[in-house]
Amino acid sequence: MNQNVLVRLIRTMKSTNSLLEKLDPRTKIISFLSIILCMILTPITRIRDFGLYFLLILAIGFCSKITPGQILKKVCILIPFILFIAMFVPFIKEGNVCLSLEISHWKLDITYEGVWTFLNIIVKSTLSVFLLVIATSTTTFPDFLKGLDMLRVPRLLVMLMSFMYRYIFVLVDEARRLMRARSLRYFGSRYKEQFRAMGYMIGVLFIRTFERAERIYSAMIIRGFSGEILSVKRFRFSSLDILFMVGIIVSLVCIVSGLVDKIEHMRVNGAHLWQGL
User: Fold this and answer.
1) Cα 169 → chain centroid
2) Which of 129, 144, 148, 259 could be bridged to 153 by S-S, CB 3.0 to 4.6 A?
């Protein structure tokens, strides 16, 4: 067996003391998707609720024993893409103008609705990215696929995700070899010829990908591949999984129902419990 493959297998099978890594992948998939769904459905005007979502994600990160530096390092890679997508929203969204900017002959109007939409995209996307970083840091991709398969996700979709993850690196290496060959044969030709060479490279990459897929498919059929996602681990729900899911559901119910705001209102006005609820 190749040494690199053996090292990856050992890393996949090693046990840790992290709470999230001991959980069943189905538990994490259901819990994290529930949190993201609740965040998406919560209006951005409920700022306190998003603060509670952030505290919930911090608690999950604390259970995962991932250092803040590791989380921020991955989050900072994705945040610029979110900012680039959302930065034009305040200028495009129609509504009541709150600020006008004049740049040369251009006049840009910033609306209140655009600002709220911008905050909606930034806040929800950032919290979702934090949660997904924690999920990917505590769950291996084969375990994630096995969890999806056990949750009765269409097997064709799971298989496509599996093949994409396994062979995307092969395609990247193939593209790098083509780029290296192009750079060695490049003698300062014009831009038109460069675009033509780029088109040839894309065509060659497509043909090689098709041929490789045919060979892989033939090898899989010969070896009796039936489409089942296999794993060396045996997953089952434990009491720890049930406690984690119950804790997440109770937290989400308290946030969505506004229970924290009601308790704060009762404390300020001195009302009884049944009056506040």
Assistant:
1) 19
2) 148
**pLDDT tens figures, 197-242:** 777 778 888 888 888 878 887 887 887 777 666 666 777 888 888 8
Nearest-angstrom CA–CA distance, 263 and 271 = 9
How many whole angstroms separate alpha carbon 229 and alpha carbon 74? 28
Residue type at position 155: R
Determine the length of the chain: 277
Residue 235 has, within 13 A of its CA and on its CB side, a CA count of 24
Q: Which residues of the chain have pLDDT under 50?
A: 1-3, 5-16, 273-277
Q: Taking the complete model, does pTM exceed 0.85, yes or no?
A: no
Helix spans in the chain (H): 3-13, 19-22, 25-41, 47-64, 68-86, 89-92, 112-138, 141-150, 155-184, 191-222, 239-256, 259-269, 273-276
- What single-letter amino acid sits at 135? A
